[in-house]
């Protein structure tokens, strides 16, 4: 009988299951001191209020206004467009694609549970132009989401929308979600009287899915955000155990760190459900931006989708370099299943499939892939969800957030900052002539010219 909650199964990471490439009892013993130190640091941050994401699942002061606003937008508007990038879009996009009707945008308003929500998160002009030209702007709300209030991609899109709508309609059809006190967008909100909600200063963008940044668009899409928060709260309770062996986040983060020490620093999230495809993009940002802080440590996250990527990445995973750890995600009960009809039974390739279901086929492919990797001495862990519903997705998101925070301290880095992205922002601003960027413009001017021997036209 399937479990009623998320299950983490790390059996196929162990020496007894996959041989010398697996982890031994001694490996876990070697991590105990670092794990205890990481636990203390997390609890110190929690006690000081600096571990902002930890309290979000049941923080009614943050949750309730966000859900009320999202539900209002669902009633008032046909479309909601999220102007945001990175942590300001990936979490909400992952949840909506997991829990919303995958093809609901094709349905008339009367058959949809919420607004159509769009995420034009890149500043590609072709994409943004196409979206704006196809939307009825009069029935569209724009959510401007940027914690800093100065994100160039987001503010540039906002300026385009302002020109299309006009300043009076902009106030009526735009909501800002940003820092409560600081930043250029917050100043515009004050000066022009926009509706807005805050992103708590103690919550980084990639951990912000349960703030207004995620909850407003999630609720606007008609997704059950309250159950999402409930699932996250239930996982948080499990993640408060100090023991590496009893805390799923600590075990998950610890296993990744142990394998990284052995040179397995490519970490693959491999859900076997189309609904969880965008969770992979969210995971990549969470893992990379939190842990890639040192020239000597920092894993490379990849995302895959089963069974599709059995026909692309699996060959590399099975016989390429021994530098990867796979985290499979399986689903015990698909939301909908479809029986495979019996036909052409005289042909073996058809006969054995008849009478099975597509859901059974998909899960058999997951199990078979994990077993095949294990036979080759290639480790994996498996996260099993009872089903893809709001509660389970809440569990899954919080599990990875907590595992990321814990892993950060095992790696010896601060998992809550991202200093490595500043140089790119500075040089971009210099290229666009932002005042105050003169020193960065000089940096660019001092760069060597392209080598003509390696420029082919």
Question: What is the secondary structure topology, with strand pairs?
Answer:
Blueprint: E1 7-9, H1 15-18, H2 25-48, H3 60-76, E2 79-83, H4 90-99, E3 116-118, H5 125-134, E4 140-146, H6 152-165, H7 167-173, E5 174-178, H8 184-192, E6 195-198, H9 212-220, H10 225-238, H11 248-261, E7 266-271, H12 277-291, E8 300-303, H13 314-319, E9 324-331, H14 348-351, H15 358-375, E10 380-385, H16 390-411, H17 422-431, H18 438-445
Parallel strand pairs: 2-3, 2-4, 4-5, 5-6, 7-8, 7-9, 9-10
Antiparallel strand pairs: 1-10
Helix pairs in contact: 2-11, 2-16, 3-9, 4-9, 4-12, 6-7, 10-16, 11-16, 12-16, 17-18
Main location: cytoplasm
Pfam family, one: PGI
Catalytic activity: alpha-D-glucose 6-phosphate = beta-D-fructose 6-phosphate
CATH architecture descriptor text of the largest domain: 3-Layer(aba) Sandwich
The SSE order reads EHHHEHEHEHHEHEHHHEHEHEHHEHHH
**Under CATH, the topology of the largest domain is which?**
Rossmann fold
Strand order of the largest sheet: 1-10-9-7-8
- Global shape: globular
Percent of residues in helices comes to 40-55%
The largest β sheet comes out as: 5 strands, mixed
CATH homologous superfamily label of the largest domain: Glucose-6-phosphate isomerase like protein, domain 1
Q: Report the top-level CATH class of the largest domain.
A: Alpha Beta
Give the tally of β-strands: 10
Find the structural class using helix and strand composition: alpha/beta
Q: Measured on Cα atoms, how large is the radius of gyration?
A: 23 Å
